[in-house]
Amino acid sequence: MDLIESSKMAVKTLTANKVRSALTMLGIIIGNASVISMIGIGQGAQRLASEQFESLGPNVLFISPGSSEARNRSFDMPKTLVWEDAKAIAAQVPSINEVAPQRQSQYPITYRNLNTSSLVVGTTPDFLSVRSFDMAKGRFITNQDIERTSQVVALGAELATRFFGNRDPIGESIRINNVSFQVIGVMQSKGAFLGNNQDDAAYVPLTTMSSRLTGRTSPYGLDLTFISISAKNEASIRAAEFQITNLLRLRHKITDKDDFTVQTQKDILRIVGTITSGLTAMLAAIAAISLLVGGIGIMNIMLVSVTERTHEIGLRKAIGASQRDILIQFMIEAVILSVAGGVFGTALGIGGILLMAATVLPQATVSPVAIIVAVGVSGSIGLFFGVVPARQAAKLDPIVALHSA
Fold first, then answer.
1. Does pLDDT of 188 surpass 80?
2. d(CA 334, CA 356)
3. What single-letter DSSP state applies at residue 150?
4. How far is CA 32 from the centre of its chain?
5. Strands (E), 52-113
6. Taking the mean position of all CA atoms in its chain, how far away is CA 256?
7. Stretch (H or E) spanning 395
8. How sure is the predictor about 75, in pLDDT bands with cuts at 50, 70 and 90?
9. Which residue has the higher pLDDT, 268 or 123?
10. Is 127 in contact with 206 (CB distance < 8 Å)?
């Protein structure tokens, strides 16, 4: 019997039991759809992280207080980084352009009868250029605001819309933690960064943040959440990192482990990429278990099919069908089930990714490699799990098979 004839017989047999065949394919369908969608979403998350960091510009460094180990051991942010450190970096490190010290915390914000809780960021005028922000209306914080400890605030785009709708908020007063601030500007929409919605934030002078909201909590000076720094160019990033590290070690009189962490944009992006890749692989591996379950389902159904078709197998062998013909017949049926399930699962997975891209994660994309791997694996699973029932069918004695019918 040739391959084409065997395939026709396999299709006829499977379509004769449509419900059973569909249920058998269900595990493969779910497995393929899960693997393809998880990989697509994971790659979308990686692409989103890359876009967020690239929006900062290619030459940005971040300095955060405490070593990585110290931050992991404690829920409280170490208070080892102060404004004087930022001033020293700006004055003494030749490979940088600008420095933007930053202190931030969550506070209640009210306007008339409207209330919310948002991130409040205390910073300096250089924040705009270092972090690549733009103003939509009004102005940002100035050096004069810093010197005078002015109670002024620039609102993120989302926060301004929440309080004022389409009205111009410039000159209006809001209260942050029961302290009155005058709105001087509205930021251009920026999106989220490191889990913080930068459009749902209020930006105030660093001195005002310290004196009117948080107070001084470090014995070394005005403590900071982190410092953002722009290097002169991409080639000078490593030099800036080296010079900043040496300067801070001298200032903090460190002889052992650093009490601060200097990271470049690429360093952070590499860490985020490692995390998202690991999560994607883990999710894909969990989803792949469905493929294994689907393969076991195919084997079980094919074993049942062998039992049900004992008389047919005996009759075919009695009229001249070889063990090889029977083996190929049942293996073709198993492969058709798994490949058909793979095709339907692929369509379902692609549909899920397109839906995700249209609603939640625009960066989610269909991975051709994931499709090829998923369909290839599902076909291989059908071939692998179809061997046992196919061999069992091929080894049946025709006389016993006919007699047992």
1. yes
2. 33
3. -
4. 20
5. 60-65, 96-111
6. 36
7. none
8. low
9. 123
10. no
Q: Look at the block and give the residue holding tokens 């001298």.
A: 250
Tokens of 202: 């209020």
| DSSP characters over 281-320 | HHHHHHHHHHHHHHHHHHHHHHHHHHHHTHHHHHHHHHTT
Backbone angles phi, psi at 61, to 5 degrees: -120, 155
d(Cα 138, Cα 168) in Å, to the nearest integer? 10
pLDDT at 64 over 80: yes
Span 100-109, pLDDT tens digits? 999 999 999 9
In the beta sheet, which residues pair with residue 193?
A: 196
**Model pLDDT, residue 31:** 80
Q: What is the pLDDT of residues 77-117, one digit of tens each?
A: 677 888 999 999 999 999 999 999 999 999 999 998 999 99
Which are the contacts of 245, defined by CB distance < 8 A and separation ≥ 6?
258, 262
Give me the helix-helix angle, 18-54 and 323-359, nearest 10°. 40
Distance of alpha carbon 159 from alpha carbon 204, whole angstroms:
14
Q: Which residue has the tokens 């482990």?
A: 257
Cβ atoms of residues 224 and 65 within 8 Å: yes
Indicate whether this model's pTM tops 0.85.
Answer: no
CA 144, 61, 251, 210 torsion-angle sign: positive
Please, are residues 59 and 233 in contact by the beta-carbon 8 Å criterion?
Answer: yes
Helix-strand-coil percent breakdown of the chain, rounded to 5?
60, 20, 25
Tokens of 397: 């004695």
Domain ranges of the chain: 3-51+277-404, 98-225
Cβ(42)–Cβ(236) under 8 Å?
Answer: no
Residue 222 CB coordination number (10 Å): 22
Q: How far is CA 163 from CA 120, 200, 237, in A?
A: 15, 11, 40
Q: How far apart are the first and last CA of the chain?
A: 24
